[in-house]
Amino acid sequence: MGVLLRRAMRAVSQPAVWLGLAVVLDALIAAGVVIGHSFKLTELLAAGPLLACARCNGRLTTLAAAYAIALCAIVAPFSGQTPATLAVLVAVIRTRRESALIRISERVQRAILRPLPAELGGVAFASHYQSATTQALVGGDLYDITMTQFGPRFIIGDVKGKGLDAVGRCAAVLAAFRELVFAEPDLVKLAEQLDTRLSRDMEIEDFVTVILAEFAPGGVRVVNCGHHPPVKLAAGSSVLQIMAPLAFVPPLGLHPHPARQDIALDPGDRLLFYTDGLVETRDRAGRFFALDSHVAAALTAAGPARAGLDGLVRPDLDGAVRRVVRLLLEHAAGGLTDDVLLVMCEPVAPAPGC
After folding, report:
1. What's the distance, CA 174 to chain centroid?
2. 32 or 190, greater pLDDT
3. What strands lie across the sheet with 260-264, from one edge to the other?
4. Which residue from 53, 63, 115, 127 puts its CA 20 to 30 A from 279's CA?
């Protein structure tokens, strides 16, 4: 029901819908003026452009205003023109302000969501961020990775909310992670320290789902605080394994007490981290996107990996991530309802004979 409501709200918020409502409203008002000569309703024709300017840009609002002025010329030549022009001005100012906010949000989010290295500490990485809106890259998903004395450490998460507020909370989480990640050798204690640090500035209803991962030869140590578990595709297998923790642990902000989970990760194995937008996307029939054999086939290498000059075999993870995104967009024919962040990793293997 919640997903259907969000889709309905998104459909109603489209500029074309508001332009249509403005046209119908002015047509009804004009009909009322023609039918009831004694009613002074001509000035109400300005309501159409004013309604359009709430969601439409300056160009569409100008069309609504021109339509209203044409109706004014029919029912009352000298009424309603000033309010229509005002509506166009309001729409232009609002559109410019929203564009400026979108540009600021994009720059801030690109600054905090730094590109992942193609390889770090013997592990290859690939990532993709798919925004649910075509107008801005603004959401609550986050990730980062850094090389520490304990090995490569990685975080992926999702803060509550959207927009600039969510971007600010993402920045706070990443700042705390970057500050604490080098000092604490225990991954569980690191999660608890993050919770303590972030809880100081959180409202009672705020939370952050995160996974902390520490890569080591032959495996990865994971601490999951309320986040969707990663999926593993073992070398030569066509079945995805959901690496769920033994027990659910609440997100940061709700005082979790997590446990460490050790996942074997050998050369050829692939591990996919993701945010909730992946598995909570529905098709037109209401079916969730499934982590099934189609996704497993998409994650499988399309061809043989190549050995570099240093004798290490680097798999084509970018192509695998793109194939998963393509499956997701085909499934969500009506559009995504939430942003999606994907991060895939695979150990870098020595080339044969090295």
Report:
1. 17
2. 190
3. 141-148, 151-159, 208-216, 219-225, 260-264
4. 115
CB 222 within 8 A of CB 280: no
| CA nearest neighbour of 230 among 275, 192, 269 | 275
From 343, 345, 337, 344, select the one nearest 131 (Cα to Cα): 337
DSSP H/E element including 199: helix 187-199
| pLDDT tens track for 5-19 | 555 555 556 777 777
Cα distances from 90 to residues 13, 23, 95, 201, 309, in angstroms, run 18, 18, 9, 36, 60
Longest CA pairwise span in the chain (Å):
96
Instruction: With both helix axes pointing from N to C terminus, report the angle between 58-75 and 81-112 in degrees, rounded to the nearest 10.
Output: 170
Element (H, E) at 34: helix 15-35
